[in-house]
DNA sequence: CGCGCTGCGCTTTTT
DNA sequence: GCGCAGCGCG
């Protein structure tokens, strides 16, 4: 609904008129929340004694803040200019303002001898902060040998940054000599809470005839792990009955965490110091220091505090934001507006409990804040609930159906207790109820979705309502939502080929687009003459994979490409190279523009060499950093976006795509910040430990048990579905490829096969191969059929950095067999391996643990690992790796890995010839690998 | 029917 | 690395 003309309904009226006191507003999807909030604001500032400076209105995005202001000025005495500086803003921007004005000494409250000044920068770019954090971490590691034991099990430094931010969002801060206030209590855990989780997963199933889920999960205890010598054996952990012994709960929970806590404290505190010394703050630290300031300085707090506080989208708030709101309120005129059903930002530290258990949290937080001083001076026990239930967006059929999402079970071990779910049913004010809800399924989901769109377009069965009239739907009325950007991008790609009017809205992983990958490929060619560059360029030109393989081996690149390379070589700037590459491939669209802009803006702030640019793009691909790109496709086009991006929007027709049998939700809780060491070489270490008795021990058995006690939480996934469905005004289509996921299967809608029929749409002819190349017969033992060394996915796998894991059971068989264990081959692959090994003379061994020092950018990089199977002869040494399928592991990944071992073994056997080879057990043969030089490895590492 | 082993697939984003 | 589903065995 729009604001200017309509009159509020009764509930909205109540919200607008009730401006004094505590209110918790349950504002469901499409209930005219913004309408009511903006009118309420207008009503508040109508009072003679109140000006906009007295009213804090918090939103969660800058865009929302701007929209609020725009809509407020439509019906209040203040104009845009008067509201420009009014506190209608996000928590972050408010905290920034507070720190700018009063934050100079805020760090000293934590014992940090530094200051926040006008020149202190806010780091917005994730890539930049990660780079800074890595630099900090390297220094920290050097300066703190006392934490060596924990430092060496950190495989990904930036996950520690994640931990720091999470603690900051919970209000846990370090001080010079400990933890701020009672922050430490959060780090000790709550045994009672853990024990009840433990008991729940440890309940026997099927009325006692079946072992508990926990016992079943722990069947893998110790598998692929190296535990400390005092770790209990598997049968002691699992017990003999249907349950894990109850005493295990205490054994795994109770451990001395002082070393871990002191490590986390030191990292956290030193990073705060580092950031301030470099004159920057991240978003989390803004809130941290603002909180500290408001906590410590009573006079300042009372001075800043607002007479009225309103918070929009309260389900997206974090613990510290809830507390900041209380510190910023001078009276109990507080109003939070939100909808627990739309809480989908937990990864951003949003806590749905803030709104679900608002009253209890309010009391508890106010109590905590009043520790030692009276900071929340108003009563908090009288909260007036208001529920908006009139929906202005969707038909009643859609509204009723969407509620199903919240009570749908996600799988065998997931159930929803419907009586526990507090759903305020919405009632539609739509006059029509011509709604279609359907589910389609086809292996080629992209084409199926496009076909469905074609069917819907201008189809009288999908009429939609506009101004009380029904009309035919156009492309612009349709939106496709996906859980992942990947799917959206693929769909768009197909749509482009079919010349379908479709546009992507939202952040794009810019560096994972084709223009960026082609640019990276050419840069690699220029800089290193690298296969990884040529392969991509050749593939793009339409060569088949076998042809590419041959061209790379023979280094016989097409003349036209060599000429283009020479042309690029003559260019001085990376901007020039970028422009040339884009123009060669006809990339003139929005992606290319934004890419060029990004590169040039980095270039103008630093002097960027080609090597720098390569690393910049590689990092961009790795981190998947996103940039807002406006594709500006024609006026009448289908919108594609992620569900997260679609929040707050509405479309007449919604297609919810990609409802496939993926395992939902994504791993909750995130990975442990202090994670296990990179598993490279784990199996070899185990073998080595067994063979030589010198295990390299690094694993923690308690963690293995603890992890398995945490139940999966599907609630947010249910809410995500709910958000997607409630965007729809009239029609809802679910779509899945391959197999539908459990949610879709459980929903009360029939899933129908939907074969795509897009033949009538013009398709461009596939590009012709430009060069025919004779493929030489592969060498190898007789009787094996040749097969391509390159699977279809290799380029993608390698480009996206997937496929570094090594372990296959065949490999394990080979190692055990070679080491003299009594192994019987159980499949043809293993038989092939056995035959190969039997045909070789000489000694096999698993090499000792070694460290290969590589010098990278002046810093030492160490790769630790145990060499794979090594075949030693008097005059030569051969490193052998095995693989059954290359689909999941790019050959270049093997080459990288084997190269590391190659140099290790070369050091160990200086007088002998060293070779490294992969044995393709499936159907092929052995192939020698040309190891990367140390210099090339350095580039990769 | 219960249990253990094996193969498969694999992430959202704002300040 | 990890959960889940499918399958074979007892």
Cα-based radius of gyration, to the nearest Å: 31 Å
Which CATH first-tier class of the domain at 10-105 and 283-391 would you pick? Alpha Beta
CATH architecture of the domain at 10-105 and 283-391: 3-Layer(aba) Sandwich
Decide which structural class fits the backbone: alpha/beta
Mean pLDDT: 79
Q: How would you describe the shape?
A: globular
Strand order of the largest sheet: 17-20-16-21-22-13-23
Helical stretch tally: 39
- The portion of residues assigned to helices is 40-55%
Low-confidence stretches: 666-680, 760-808, 848-866, 885-890
Please report which band the strand proportion falls in: under 5%, 5-15%, 15-25%, 25-35%, 35-45% or over 45%: 5-15%
What is the fold-level CATH name, i.e. the topology of the domain at 10-105 and 283-391? Answer: Rossmann fold
- Give the name of the CATH superfamily of the domain at 10-105 and 283-391: P-loop containing nucleotide triphosphate hydrolases
Distance between the termini: 54 Å
Describe the sheet with the most strands. Answer: 7 strands, parallel
Count of strand segments: 30
Family: Belongs to the helicase family. UvrD subfamily.
Keywords: ATP-binding, DNA damage, DNA repair, DNA-binding, Exonuclease, Helicase, Hydrolase, Isomerase, Nuclease, Nucleotide-binding
Pfam family, one: UvrD_C
GO molecular function: 3'-5' DNA helicase activity; ATP binding; DNA binding; exonuclease activity
């Amino acid at each position: 609904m729009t604001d200017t003309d309509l009159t509020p309904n009764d509930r909205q009226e109540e919200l607008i008129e009730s401006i004094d006191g505590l209110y918790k507003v349950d504002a469901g999807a499409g209930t005219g929340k913004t309408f009511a909030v903006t009118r309420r604001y207008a009503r508040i500032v109508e009072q003679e004694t109140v000006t906009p400076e007295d009213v804090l209105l918090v939103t969660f995005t800058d865009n929302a803040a701007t929209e609020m202001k725009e809509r407020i000025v439509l019906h209040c005495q203040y104009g845009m200019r008067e509201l420009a500086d009014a506190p209608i803003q996000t928590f972050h921007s408010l905290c920034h303002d507070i720190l700018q004005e009063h934050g100079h000494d805020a760090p000293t409250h934590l014992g940090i001898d530094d200051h926040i000044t006008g020149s202190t920068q806010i780091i917005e770019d994730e890539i930049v902060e990660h780079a800074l954090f890595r630099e900090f971490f390297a220094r920290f590691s050097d300066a703190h040998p006392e934490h060596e034991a924990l430092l060496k099990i950190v495989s990904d430094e930036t996950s520690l940054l994640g931990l720091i931010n999470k603690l900051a969002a919970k209000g846990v801060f370090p001080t010079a000599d400990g933890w701020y206030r009672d922050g430490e209590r959060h780090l000790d855990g709550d045994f009672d809470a853990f024990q009840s989780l433990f008991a729940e997963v440890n309940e026997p199933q099927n009325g006692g005839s079946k072992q508990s889920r926990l016992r079943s999960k722990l069947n893998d205890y110790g598998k692929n792990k190296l535990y400390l010598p005092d770790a209990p054996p598997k049968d002691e952990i699992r017990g003999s009955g249907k349950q894990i012994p109850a005493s295990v709960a205490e054994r795994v929970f109770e451990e001395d965490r002082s070393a871990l806590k002191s490590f986390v404290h030191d990292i956290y505190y030193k990073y705060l110091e580092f950031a301030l010394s470099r004159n920057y703050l991240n978003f989390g630290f803004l809130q941290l220091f603002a909180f500290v300031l408001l906590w410590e300085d009573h006079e300042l707090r009372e001075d800043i505090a607002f007479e009225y506080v309103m918070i929009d989208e309260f389900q997206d708030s974090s613990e510290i934001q809830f507390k900041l709101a209380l510190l910023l309120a001078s009276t109990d005129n507080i109003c939070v507006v939100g909808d627990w059903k739309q809480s989908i930002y937990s990864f951003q530290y949003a806590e749905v409990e803030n709104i679900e258990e608002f009253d209890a949290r309010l009391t508890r937080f106010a109590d905590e804040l009043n520790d030692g001083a009276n900071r929340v001076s108003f009563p908090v026990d009288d909260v007036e609930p208001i529920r908006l239930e009139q929906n202005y967006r969707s038909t009643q059929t859609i509204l009723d159906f969407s509620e199903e999402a919240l009570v749908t079970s996600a799988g065998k071990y997931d159930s929803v207790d419907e009586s526990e779910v507090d759903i305020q049913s919405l009632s539609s004010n739509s006059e029509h109820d011509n709604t279609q809800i359907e589910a389609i399924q086809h292996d080629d989901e992209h084409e199926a979705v496009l076909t469905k769109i074609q069917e819907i377009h201008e189809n009288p069965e999908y009429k939609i309502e506009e101004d009380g009239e029904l009309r035919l739907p156009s492309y612009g009325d349709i939106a496709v939502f996906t859980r992942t950007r990947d799917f959206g991008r693929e769909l768009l790609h197909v749509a482009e080929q079919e010349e379908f009017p479709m546009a992507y809205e939202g952040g794009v992983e810019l560096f994972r687009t084709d223009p960026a990958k082609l640019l990276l490929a050419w840069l690699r060619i220029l800089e290193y003459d690298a296969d990884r560059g040529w392969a991509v360029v050749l593939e793009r030109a339409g060569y088949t994979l076998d042809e590419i393989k041959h061209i790379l081996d023979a280094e016989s690149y097409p003349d036209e490409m060599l000429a283009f390379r020479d042309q690029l070589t003559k260019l001085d700037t990376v901007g020039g190279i970028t422009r040339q590459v884009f123009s060669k491939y006809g990339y003139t669209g929005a992606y290319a523009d934004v890419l060029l802009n990004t590169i040039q803006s980095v270039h103008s702030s630093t002097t960027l060499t080609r090597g720098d640019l390569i690393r910049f793009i590689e990092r961009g691909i790795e981190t998947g950093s996103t940039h807002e790109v406006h594709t500006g496709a024609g006026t009448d086009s289908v919108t594609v976006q992620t569900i997260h991006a679609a929040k707050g929007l509405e479309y007449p027709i919604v297609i919810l795509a990609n409802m496939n049998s993926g395992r939902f939700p994504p791993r909750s809780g995130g990975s442990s910040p202090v994670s296990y060491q990179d598993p490279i070489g784990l199996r070899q270490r185990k073998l080595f430990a067994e063979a030589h008795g010198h295990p390299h021990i690094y694993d923690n058995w308690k963690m293995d048990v603890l992890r398995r006690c945490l139940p999966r939480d599907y609630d947010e996934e249910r809410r995500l579905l709910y958000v997607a469905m409630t965007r729809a005004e009239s029609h809802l289509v679910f779509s899945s490829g391959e197999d539908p996921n459990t949610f879709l299967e459980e929903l009360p809608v029939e899933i129908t096969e939907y074969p795509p029929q897009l033949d009538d749409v013009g398709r461009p002819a596939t590009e012709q191969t430009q060069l025919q190349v004779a493929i030489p017969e592969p060498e190898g033992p007789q009787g094996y059929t040749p097969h391509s060394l390159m699977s279809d996915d290799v380029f993608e796998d390698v480009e996206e950095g997937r496929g570094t894991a090594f372990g296959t059971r065949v490999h394990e068989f080979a190692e055990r067999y070679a080491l003299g264990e009594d192994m019987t081959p159980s499949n043809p692959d293993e038989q092939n391996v056995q035959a190969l090994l039997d045909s070789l003379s000489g000694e096999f061994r698993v090499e000792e643990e070694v460290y290969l020092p590589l010098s990278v950018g002046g810093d030492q990089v160490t790769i630790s690992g145990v060499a794979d199977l090594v075949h030693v002869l008097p005059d030569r040494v051969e490193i052998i790796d095995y693989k059954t399928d290359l689909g999941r592991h790019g050959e270049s990944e093997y080459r990288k890995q084997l190269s590391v071992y190659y140099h290790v073994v070369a050091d160990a056997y200086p007088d002998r010839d060293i070779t490294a080879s992969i044995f393709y057990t499936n159907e092929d043969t052995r192939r020698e690998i040309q190891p990367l030089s140390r210099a090339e490895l350095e580039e990769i590492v």
